[in-house]
Amino acid sequence: MLSRRAALGALLAAGASPLVVASCANQAPTTTGPVLPRPSTPEDALYRLQDGNQRFVAGTPLHPNQTLELRQQLAGHQQPFASVLGCADSRTAPELAVDAGIGDLFVCRVAGNIATPADTASLLYAQAVLGTEVLLVLGHDNCGAVKTAIEVAEGKTPPGEFAPLVAPIQPAVAQARQAGATGDALLHEAVVANVRHVVAALPEMSAGLAQAVRAGHLTIHGGVLTLSTGKIDPVT
Ligand SMILES: [Zn+2]
């Protein structure tokens, strides 16, 4: 077997650019996990999310549904089992946090995981057209958008161009402040309240989502991801 140095030398001699070679050298050998069947009920879909998060927390991801064959099979259609409204934060990728693969999740991400009209319409599309069984609103601790909303509420900073982002979070901040929370506890309580507000707001903003919930075709859940552990705690 060639050593890494010898392999690099061979690649460079063959004309590969140093940039590409450096990239290859930093990658572990490609592995693909199992292909898991699609959950067929909202209960099974929620269980799949919870199960995947447990693997993420334990550091034992399966990396399911990432084979080359599946990628090709899904090129012409998709039937994700879950939709996620998550924060744009770089540490909160839903596919990683619930150990999912290609075609599993329909994901909308925006700072503060707020329910914008476009995101809400996207989530309705996921349910009504693609058939997602479960919708997860995923907040996280130490959220910069919620932090900014708190600073605006306390008059420490003007909202400026962040106004469209922080205005929808203000009711959650107000609720957390009224409960007497301060400092880190205020941030945490505002994160939780914001998730709870968005879970409640989605069916109010979309008659289609409300109908899907009433008909038992969709369940909407809230969760908060702890960045250090990777654990998603339910918000009820
Ligand atoms: Zn965030």
TrEMBL record:
Under the heading InterPro entries, the entry gives:
Carbonic_anhydrase, Carbonic_anhydrase_sf
- Membrane-spanning regions, if any? none
Q: Which UniProt keywords apply?
A: Signal
Keyword Oxidoreductase tagged: no
Say yes or no: keyword Signal present.
Answer: yes
As given in the record, the signal peptide range reads 1-22
> What role is this protein assigned?
Catalyzes the reversible hydration of carbon dioxide to form bicarbonate.
- Identify the PANTHER family for this entry: CARBONIC ANHYDRASE (PTHR11002), CARBONIC ANHYDRASE 2 (PTHR11002:SF79)
Regarding protein family, the annotation reads:
Belongs to the beta-class carbonic anhydrase family.
The protein here is known as: Carbonic anhydrase
UniProt source species: Saccharopolyspora oryzae
Question: What lineage does UniProt assign to this protein's organism?
Answer: Bacteria, Bacillati, Actinomycetota, Actinomycetes, Pseudonocardiales
